[in-house]
Write a structure and sequence with these properties.
This protein is an alpha/beta fold and 239 residues long. 36% of the residues lie in helices and 15% in strands. It contains 9 helices and 8 strands. It has helices at residues 19-27, 53-66, 81-90, 118-135, 154-163, 169-173, 204-211, 224-227, 229-237; strands spanning 4-8, 31-33, 72-77, 95-101, 140-141, 167-168, 188-193, 214-218. The chain has a 6-stranded parallel sheet with strand order 2-1-3-4-7-8, with helices on both faces. A two-stranded antiparallel ribbon has the order 5-6. It is globular and about 50 Å long.
Length: 239
């Protein structure tokens, strides 16, 4: 059965990161959209002081509405879980189910920075100030190296390191504002990457557990769409 997938990338990435997943999905007859969030990837030049989580939720909603998509499998990786959850709150009628791939999940009304250890927040803020010395602004914190995302293959490391961009600070400072509970009642699957575990997501797992979402484990690194694309495709197409 052909399905429609909208794949939303995580922090510092762009739509480019789904290449190894999007191609086999399309070859199998599925429709696949891989939007790049404002301020990242090929849209990094659009970064402004107003670019935050609300902007990125609007990005995802706009793809669903402008492409006139319905019955969508909406997928969010890492930070991309937050724009996906925001879109599910606003246009649930366009979505059949949610898949969150090793995602950052926060309580409504809180921000990404609220779930990260204070020392890590301070480091990212300081890194943004240092980046300001090079870019002329402190609107983003620099991307970590590919190996921090669990990427180990030399060619993949080089590809990811070439393509990642700074992450808009406001996207982590801005709270996730919802009118409905997380997931808005939609069937939701959370895929937890375990080899190695991405420590920045530790505080998200209790929230996932409280929500009662289906949880699956995949023995690969955090950037599973790069490190284990075949297994990722299998998870996305699993009913």
């Amino acid at each position: 059965m052909s399905e429609t997938f909208v794949l939303v990338h995580g922090a510092c990435h762009g739509g480019w990161c789904w290449r190894k997943v999007a191609e086999p999905l399309r070859a199998a007859g599925h429709r696949v959209f891989t939007p790049t969030l404002t301020g990242l990837g090929e849209r990094a030049h659009l970064l402004t002081p107003e670019t935050g989580l609300a902007t990125m939720i609007a990005d995802v909603v706009a793809v669903l509405e402008c492409e006139e998509l319905t019955d969508v499998v909406l997928v969010g990786h890492s930070f991309g879980a937050l724009p996906v959850l925001g879109a599910a709150d606003r246009v649930p009628e366009r979505i059949r189910r949610l898949v969150i791939l090793d995602g950052l999940v926060v309580e409504p009304g809180t921000s990404g920075f609220d779930l990260i250890p204070p020392e890590a927040v301070a480091r990212r803020e300081a890194d943004a100030r240092r980046l300001a010395d090079q870019s002329g602004h402190g609107l983003a914190f620099p991307a970590p190296p590919a190996r921090a995302f669990g990427v180990t293959d030399a060619d993949d490391v080089a590809w990811v390191d070439r393509r990642v961009t700074g992450q808009p600070l406001r996207s982590y400072r801005e709270p996730l504002v919802l009118r409905n509970p997380l997931g808005n009642g939609l069937p939701t699957t959370y895929v937890h990457c375990t080899d190695p575990v991405y420590g920045a997501l530790a505080a998200s797992l209790p929230i996932v557990d409280r929500m009662g979402w289906e949880v699956r484990e995949l023995a690969t690194g955090h950037d599973l769409m790069i490190t284990a694309p075949e297994a990722t495709v299998a998870e996305l197409t699993r009913s």
